[in-house]
Amino acid sequence: MEVIASFVPLVVILPFAGALLNLFLGRYLSEKLIGALATTAAALAFAVAAVMTVGITAHGYEAVVVNPPILDSWIYIPSAAIDIPWQMRVDTLSLTMMLVVTGVGTLIHLYAIGYMHGDPRFARFFVYLNLFLGFMLILVTGNNFLMMFVGWEGVGLCSFLLIGFWFDKKHGEGWKNSNAARKAFIVNRVGDFGLLLAIFLIFWTYGTLDYYKPNEVLHIGGEKAAADVLVREGGDGIAHGQKGVFAQTEAWLAEGGHIVSFGVFELPFETVVTLITLFMLIGVTGKSAQIPLFVWLPDAMAGPTPVSALIHAATMVTAGVYLITRNSVLYHAAPLSAALVTVVGAATALMAGFIALGQWDIKKVLAYSTVSQLGFMVAAVGIGGYAAGMFHLITHAFFKALLFLGSGSVIHAMEHGHHHAHAHHESEHGEESHGHADHAHEEAFDPQDMRNMGGLARRMPITFVTYLIGTLALAGIFPLAGFWSKDEILGKAFNAAFIDGKLEGFAMLGLLLAAAGFTAFYMWRQIKLVFLGVPRTEAAAAATESSPSMTIPLLVLAALSIFGGALNIPLGVNSVLVIGVLFITAGFWLLWALPSVRLFFIGRAEPVTSLPSLKPAFRLIALGSAAAFMLSGAAIILVPSLGASYPLETLVLWLEHSVPYTKGLTLNPFLAILALGIGIGGILLAQRVYSPAPLAEGNQDVLEIRPDTRPAFQLANAKLYWDETYGRLIEQPYNRAAAWLAHKLDWEFWHDRFHHTVFRDFYKRAADFIATPVDRGAIDQGFLRIGRAVAQAAARLRTVQTGYVRTYVFTMLFGVVLVMLILLLPLLRQ
Amino acid sequence: MQPAVATEYFVVLSAVLFIMGVLGVLVRRNAIMIFMSVELMLNAANLSLVAFAQQWSNMGGQLIVFFVITIAAAEVAVGLALIVAIFRTKKSIDIDELNAMQG
Is residue B89 part of a domain? Predict the structure, then answer.
């Protein structure tokens, strides 16, 4: 295993190498080469992660700490007992994250080749994407908090760069984009500050930042820790521990009564852990978009859609969930923090689900849906369902990436349809009618506004079918991925409430069930608005299916959204049957079932594979994947009967090897049926509400017209006034304070008064003094006087020069006589 | 060997010659005459040098006299050339008319 695990630096290096190559060579390469390079880097990283997964499975899931050869000692200050090695951890949790990040990342890279086609900064986009992957992989592979933080900040940077990627869009759009980027960065800074405090506190308390030391085995609640494990170094408070953070926590908890000294005061260890986990929660609310710091994520949709899918739905925003899962030991030791995490997550899930009901922007709905689903995950890890949270993280990565990419395909088609309809219009009316009015029309058109869509199912069959799969998966419809993971989370909440009697369990169960209902409702509202009915604009009528590089990732992600739930189905004989049946069903769907669904909704019954708009390649892909699904389903059922067995485990068992306090599977048939009923109920309700037409007079929502639902819709449409509240509470006072500082303090006091009176006037006066009395008075006049005196003396002395030879001779003679007299005088005196 | 004439006579004669030279330089206006007076002063000095040399039986004095005579000759060459040059420009060798250096 050691050998296989030592490949782990490659997982990080490959995306960085891709980024560097495109950074320096991108301008010389064609779009296809750039995209291929970036996608290959991501795919190779995925391959390495997959190889390591096989390796770790074959070696009993043993976690390995790898020292990359060059970065051996990253921060090493012997005098201060600081030793933070650049170590990477390969265990089942980090491998899970690696597979999700690189797997979904590869598909989104592929999709972006089509989506970003023709963008002037094509290469830069892929540089950023690869850079993001690299940092995300540092985040998940690091074996200490500092490496995690490097990745954490790196993905934040990439998020900023990519949200503001179209900073130069026309008509003020660019400003909106760059403002969204700045908002994301600044809000995240608040969260990162909390995380930093947590890391500082950890270092102070433990003297190390390592999760685990190499070859360390964690004994939960185990034997008493040896007394000499911790060696205090002098009085500077820096502890030099030989144990990793988690093992040390367990040791101190088992020992009991450990006190952490902060110099002037002391705190019991349990309180310190609570503080650490609370600070960490602030970081989680920032990065994973929870109350109160979620406000940046909906705005982050200003970025290109692949970015929304990769960073702001599937991977980066789940970093907080990963962080809590990684720190399960700490959260288990701090029940108060865990309860707060649960409540925050569940409240976020319901709140965001409610806001999503009233949104018009296709991506905003998905953004609030993401916030809501992240709330599910955070609540799950808060209640102790670490595997349930990770499970939902994975399935959500599949279907939310699918939905975002689908929405990108729709936006792309709408833009093209708009251009197409526009050009068509021009040719009809002739050149002279093309004037200012048309231009205004062009500016006003919003390709993301669902009010402009409608009837796209017919025009974009692959996008529609995959979007439908994503919607059903998100709504938790059996047997798609979301059903299994959502049920797992609800099961954890149920157990916490009714078995452990935890108060937050009841709250979580209620909030999440309501949120699940909202989820189904707003997603079906979206389907109705976007895909069903009749086109409401010329652009929607002229929309066409996107290119294969965009639809292939959609198909793959759709398959993953269908089968993702299988990750956690116990692989007994029966479950093998279930999975096999699932696979066969999927193939069946692709071939027959979906066309019948289309018949139901659209009234046209051609199979997807025989639509005239489809290219032959597509038909081949669809047929091929259907056949592959059915064949592999048959194989899955047949292989055990041949005597072979699967080395696979469920996700829960797999994660139990690296996440302490992961409890086994929670299958609750009652809850499953209840959640399914809520999901289907939400869909049916939406279907009823939004039939026959989803929009009432004047492009208003049906709910907006009805007096009983009008206030609720408006509240959701206004996003519950979160931005306004923050604006009132933080932004405006801040701006006022800044304006006061700028105008009153800086300009009026400092510049006008202090500067003018003290600096300028003092300087002027001093300069005047030096210039007038000192320089021009004393110095100048003095030298002038000397000059004049010399001139006068010279004028007088000049007369000595008579010009007569005899005067000179006489003078000379006189001088000679005088000299002789002086010489002779001493002789004469003798 | 007693000297034929006592040194005091030479010295007195030398002084008389020197004073005559000085007076000549001071009083005369003709450049040639001044020149000759200067020569007189030189020879007065020569005379006293030779006299003292004889008195002290030291050949140094006589030696210097040779030098003086040589230099005087050179001086005469230069001086006369100057006088000729002045005469060419001024058409006169009256020393009082050469007062261009007056302050």
Answer: yes
Could you tell me if B73 lies within 8 Å of chain A, comparing CB atoms?
no
CA distance B53 to B48: 8
The answer for B 27-56 residues in CB contact with A (under 8 A) is: 27, 34
What is chain B's percent helix, strand, coil content, to nearest 5? Answer: 80, 0, 20
Q: pLDDT tens-digit profile of A791-809? A: 999 999 988 888 888 888 8
Highest-scoring range by mean pLDDT, A517-521, A647-651, B51-55, B94-98 = A517-521
Closest residue by Cα to residue A513 from A716, A345, A686, A675? A675
Q: Is the residue at A113 inside a domain?
A: yes
CA A597 to chain centre: 36
pLDDT of A138-188, one tens digit each? 999 999 999 999 999 999 999 999 999 999 888 778 889 999 999 999 999
Q: How many structural domains comprise chain A? A: 3
pLDDT of residue A617: 54
Q: Report the residue count for chain A.
A: 830
Q: Taking the mean position of all CA atoms in its chain, how far away is CA A814?
A: 107
Note the pLDDT of residue A581. Answer: 67
* A107 and A20 in a common domain: yes
Q: Do A804 and B25 touch (CB under 8 A)?
A: no
Same domain, yes or no: A741 and A809:
no
A138 assigned to some structural domain: yes
pLDDT tens string A32-78: 899 989 999 999 999 999 888 888 877 777 888 888 776 666 777 77
Q: Are A809 and B98 within 8 A, CB to CB?
A: no
Query: What residues in A contact B100, CB-CB < 8 Å?
Result: 803
The token duo for A110 is: 């592929």
- Are the C-beta atoms of A342 and A281 separated by less than 8 Å? no
**Best to test chain B binding among A798, A801, A806 (most B CBs inside 10 Å):** A806
Nearest to A20 by CA among A134, A119, A111: A134
What ipTM describes this predicted complex? 0.84
Q: How confident is the model at residue A610 (pLDDT cuts 50, 70, 90)?
A: very low
CATH of the domain at B57: 1.10.287.3510
pLDDT at A645 over 60: no
| Residue among B22, B95, B103 whose CB faces A805 most closely | B95
| Range with the poorest average pLDDT among A77-81, A621-625, A739-743 | A621-625
Bridging pattern class, strands A266-268 and A239-241? unpaired
Q: What is the mean pLDDT of residues B78-86?
A: 92
What would the DSSP string read from start to end of A492-521? HHHHHHHTS--HHHHHHHHHHHHHHHHHHH
Domain count of the fold of chain B: 1
Looking at residue A330, its pLDDT comes to 94
Which residue in chain B is spatially nearest to A795 when comparing CA positions?
B103
Domain enclosing residue A819, as ranges: 802-830
Please state, in angstroms and as integers, the Cα–Cα distance from residue A232 to each residue in A111, A226, A322, following that order: 54, 14, 32
B20 inside 8 A of chain A by CB: no
Which residues 797-826 in chain A show a CB within 8 A of chain B?
797-806, 809-810, 813
Residue B2 is assigned to a structural domain of this protein = no
* In-domain check, residue A776: yes
Contacts by A789-793 with C-beta closer than 8 Å and gap 24+?
A: none
Q: Letter for the amino acid at A42? A: A
Contacts of B102 in chain A (CB under 8 A): 801-803
Residue B83 lies in a domain: yes
Largest CA distance in chain B: 58
Q: Is residue A72 part of a domain?
A: yes
Weakest mean pLDDT among A245-254, A580-589, B52-61:
A580-589
Q: Is A810 within 8 Å of B26 when comparing Cβ atoms? A: yes
pLDDT digits (tens, 9 = 90+) for A558-605: 888 887 877 776 655 455 566 666 666 666 665 554 554 554 455 444
